[in-house]
Amino acid sequence: MILLGYSFETKKQMEVDAFFKGLETEIHWLNSLNQIQDLMLDKDIGVIFITSSNFEDKEGIYEVSRHLSQSFLNLAVVLIADENSLDIRKAMRTGVFDVLTGKLNEYQVKETLKEAEKHITFQTQTLSKSEGKNTVEKKARIITVCSTKGGVGKTTFTVNFAAAFAKQFKKVAVIDLDLQFGDISMFFNCNPKKTIYEWVKEGRNDPKAYMHSYNDYLDIMPAPIRPEFSEAILDEHISHLIERLEPMYDLVLIDTAPYMEDKILTALEKSDDIFLITFLDLPTLKNSKIFIETLNSLSLDTKVKVIINRDSNKKGINSSIAEGVLGLPIFLKIPDVEKVVAVSVNEGTPYVYSSPRARISKLIYSLALDIAGRPKSQQKKSFFSKKGSVVGR
Fold first, then answer.
1. Is residue 136 in some structural domain?
2. Which residue stretches of the chain have pLDDT < 50?
3. Burial class for 107, CB neighbours closer than 10 Å (0-12, 13-18, 19+)
């Protein structure tokens, strides 16, 4: 590993240089970024420390970081900055590996170097493997499940749709993107030892090592165990996670919090389909309409499929009125089967497993069959082609 330094301030350079000499490690200071090409020629791994204190234009350090991250895949960019002098989230979006703030300490720097080495080694190994393949890699279908309020059955749907897909011997990854109060683990009655928080903090290595295996075909990336841990997870982490899981699974299913934020927007942009779970009541439909309009402004509305949960024959708003309000057809109507759902949630077992003959289970399983692709023998009986189907009307 080679250590490089790039600074715009002599005093800061001397401070960092003295620190590394104390670690008995040499750092090569650059007069120009053009020197990197020659220094990295015979090196597998490099780490460049850039001090930011004397950048007149803070945008400059983001541009430098982006250029280095894109030009040298075996070089980790680490910024050394004063407290609150940088927008850390913006820096991470440019491809920066880490940002060190405050006074440098031995443990902090050694951990950064160790994690940088692991990260680059994994990246280069993955790249060499993919370059050696002659076949096209499998690419999972990405589906994000959303709602505009809690309690509409979004997580219940996600869990059972994932279970139904896994029943067809398809590999499914479920990401709990309700990062503060996610319940996916509880719905599967499991107590994972690792979560998405540990995956981020420990260098974003193989995500499967951080996922809980529910069965041979269904894996879960749980939400952090504490709400405050969600702040460590950025939208670029979500993008990277989805990209890493795509070649490993047939379906990546993402459960979200009932509001809009950068991390959820990233998931929506990466998705092939967006399932919007809603109710047949005016407040929920009003918020769902606003959600669809927001996606329209982002050119994502073509991905939306509206799902009515707890549909019943009670008087009030019907599906035709809902379609008029939302401006989209109803993709699926899930019946109101309170007893089956309540028992499933309380026991921590998806109802497609515990009550496979229930009408709601057959509905979800049939949906999963159509998403996965039915065997030819069943294609004429497709759920979507049934006369009077509740889908797409």
1. no
2. 134-136, 376-377, 379-393
3. exposed
